[in-house]
Amino acid sequence: MPYLSEIQHRTVIEPNGDEVGKLADVAVVPQGQFPAAQWAILATRNGEKVLRWADLAPEIGHFRLRSRLANTPDQQLPAEALRLARDLLDKQIVDTHGAKVVRVNDLQLSEVEGQLRLVGADVGMRGIFRRIGAERLAERAAGIVGRKLPRGIIPWHLVEPLQSADAAVRLTVPHAKLALLHPADIADIVEEMTADERVAVFEQLDAETAAEALAEVEPEMQAAIVSDLDEERAADILEEMDPDEAADLLQDLPEERREELVELMEKEEKQDVEELLTYAEDSAGGIMTTDYVALAGGLTAAQAIDELRVRKPDPQLTYYLYVVDDEGRLEGVISLRDLVVAPPETKLTAAMDPHVLKVEAETPKEEVASLIAKYDLLALPVVDARRKLLGTVTVDDVVELMLPRGWKKRSLRSIAR
Fewest CB atoms within 10 A around its CB: which of 70, 173, 249, 275? Predict the structure, then answer.
């Protein structure tokens, strides 16, 4: 298969054999798995000239114009077009399969159904050697020591461009492939980007995906990203985050920026975050989340199941279902299993366990961690002096206490993989 480095700078001749310039670049519209070459950019003595790729006929060692240059119409590149040499060579791309940022050393092309197409990015050392004309020498050197020169080709449909000479062009490239990755993988990728590239990604991801990815980013970088984003966009992302994670992030921002973002949040999310920000960081209130499932004690088992169907809570919130009275005071806890197997007409107050372990909001976080570890709990309810349910501290919050801040996500990610 040919590579861009093997055809770039080749001589271009007219039908009569007169040399009129050299092939400077090839342009594509980055659509589909393997974009077709649509334009050729020639370097002529009068400057650059853009032609249709079909106006050239490849021959051994050079290209021949199908008609005289003067008779070949000039073309205009659309805004979304990518010039392969200018916009991709030596630029960074995201390998959406390996979830990493890599540098393009060459581009692999192929004739597919009569069209020259961009099929891969060479990110290995072989691409560098090829561009300087030393690929065969490097192969021989590797063979002397009993090795093969590795190939580092990433199929084009698995990559996402990050840079170009023109920022306006770069930002028109959709990040659809990047958005399909796991949020933890997106976080790994954006941590390798420049500040401008990170902002571009978080501006284009949908708010929910952006929130999930931001929650996986190192705390210091979280604050930097939110500081660089437009205020409205930052507030939208914060609204999609778990309240405790949003509050932790806001604590790392300058007070003025924090207040601006909180004011822009929707009323319900704003109230949750403002409440969490009132507690000391080293207390149960400071590490709790206000996302939990509370059910009225007067409900029957059947009514409670119906309510869960309506609410559609996140799966992790259904490990413990808290039972409260009319004033929101914690009365007990019931597991999802016990709720399902209970006779439909049974009141929750009769089916629940009234002996629920709980802590007050001012309880030191080390004591909370000790209780969760001692009793092997997934979550621990937090109440005020009147026993009103305020939130829960989950086991992942306790893991964070046991590791230096920012290591939790990396450690759990490694285990998950």
Answer: 70
Tens of pLDDT along the chain (417 residues) come to 689 999 999 999 999 999 999 999 999 998 888 999 999 999 999 999 999 999 999 999 999 999 999 999 999 999 889 999 999 999 888 887 777 788 899 999 998 777 899 999 998 888 898 988 888 888 888 888 888 878 788 888 888 776 544 433 333 334 567 777 788 888 888 887 788 888 888 988 889 999 999 988 888 899 999 999 999 999 999 999 988 889 989 988 999 999 999 999 999 899 989 989 999 888 999 889 888 999 999 999 999 999 999 999 988 888 899 999 999 999 999 999 999 999 999 999 999 999 999 999 999 989 999 999 899 999 999 999 999 999 999 887 777 665 554 444 544 444 334
- Please check whether residue 412 lies inside any domain of the structure: no
Residues 128-135: contacts with CB under 8 Å, at least 24 apart: 130/3, 130/5, 130/6, 130/105, 130/106, 131/5, 131/105, 131/106
Distance CA 117, CA 99 (A): 24
Do residues 323 and 373 touch, judged by C-beta distance below 8 A?
no
Amino acid identity of residue 187, one-letter, is A
- In terms of C-beta density within 10 A (0-12 exposed, 13-18 middle, 19 or more buried), how is residue 99 classed? middle
109/198 same-domain check = no
Asked if 185 and 268 sit in the same domain, the reply is: yes
Mapped onto helix, strand or coil, the DSSP state of residue 30 is: coil
Q: Which pair of structure tokens corresponds to residue 174? A: 């959709």
Of the candidates 414, 415, 411, the residue with the CA atom closest to the CA atom of residue 402: 411
CATH label of the domain that carries residue 246: 1.25.60.10
Work out how many domains the chain is built from and give that number.
4
Residue 52 phi, psi (nearest 5):
-70, 140
75 Rama sector, left if φ>0, alpha if ψ -120 to 50, beta otherwise: beta
Same domain, 299 and 379: yes
398-407: Cβ within 8 A, 24+ apart: 398/368, 398/369, 398/372, 398/373, 400/287, 401/287, 401/365, 401/366, 401/369, 402/369, 405/219, 406/218, 406/219, 406/220
Beta-sheet pairing, 19-28 with 11-13: antiparallel
Same domain, 304 and 388: yes
Same structural domain for residues 127 and 151? Answer: yes
310 lies in the same domain as 396: yes
